[in-house]
Please model this.
Amino acid sequence: MYIHWFRSDLRLWDNHALSVSLDLAKNKSDLKFLWIWDKNITSFNSDNIKIKYLTSRLDFLKSEVEKHGFEFIESTGKPTQIFATLLDKYKTLQVFANEDYSPYSKSRDKLVSELLNLHDSELNLFKDSTIFPDIINSKTKLPYKVLTYYKTEWLNKLNIDIDLKNYSNDIFLQSDTESFDEFLSSKIYDYHKSRDLIAENGTSKISHLLKFGVISIRYVIREIVKVYLESNLDLKDFRSLKLNPKFSGVESYLSEIIWREFYKMILNFYPEVAKLAFQEKYRKLNWDLNFEDIVWQNEIPVLKTQFQNNSIKLKAYNNFLKFINSQTGFELVDAGIAQLNLEYWMHNRVRMIIASFLTKDLHIDWRLGKYYFKLKLLDWDLASNNGGWQWSAGVGTDAAPYFRIFNPDEQAEKYDPKRIYRDKYLKERDKLEKMIDHKLERVRALERYQSTSI
Model:
């Protein structure tokens, strides 16, 4: 029996593993589609935005699959237990899935593969969610740690016909590309100018589609390549990213896509960064409030009992509560958190400003901010969000220097000059007193990082 195991690839077109399984199955009854609600990682809180989205997407996939005469299996449990049950029923299995790169995903796949191998069965994994998760420096034989060098190698290495192959099939039609297609037809040309203007709708907003694999990363890059070729630019222009001003937005957007690729590569080669700072010297940073100081109860942070008489930690904890309830008194920070809590999304520029504020103004562990984003963001992706938080905190690979500390008020004037964003999310709320003095906390932050760097 052939099984296509959906994970982070919730689409029926341009899906690498699915394409292979469809080619091998001689009859529709030979192929089953599988989704596992993994008890190891999922809370199944029906109010959670990601669970709601997943449920809706799975309903769509199930409808499409069954409409074409296939069986869709939806199971809850641990993956090894689910596959043990399937082995009891079908005796041997050929399971097809696309690679995941988180530490848990790798360990899960190893256990499933070992189980299947004991029964003359096999887990077949394919590259699908990223183009190059394993680029290494040909001279050092080590992974790249700086985005600029990785980007150059990525562009030089890309083979349009092979790496961007369209894994379409004759059964399921292309779908869910409308929002990206609209962005590509017009907004992408001004992306370099509009992407940081918080109140403008200048970004593609496909991060959640990429996170769940609703849209193929190959499709996104293929369409960008088309922009070059249809404009009488050859692939040399594409690889060098040396374009005339008309294409500055295209170049800027492609660079963001490659940055996403870079973080997936980092997570693939350095799985420890899921929990620790990439730069080892900053793993010993003693924050006013550390990730280990908190327990989460129904998505609410609670200070551990042993720290409740510690004045520094208690103050930082109360500041964290104000932060996640948009009560810091810094309007852009509060507007950003209000948007996050309301819409489960936040503009990327605001994400950077908020991450800088939490770590360098409030001196709170970046991992607490990352975890709160994990609870709230629909598009939360381990590689990208982990990389982004470490970049802003100055502790990651290719990170912003620790001394780059955003002034929230200056950022607000620069990127929300007409107050459209702040007024939208703060509405007529009374102005709050600022909880800290940015200039003083900036000095404290510099001292903390400098003492750790010695």
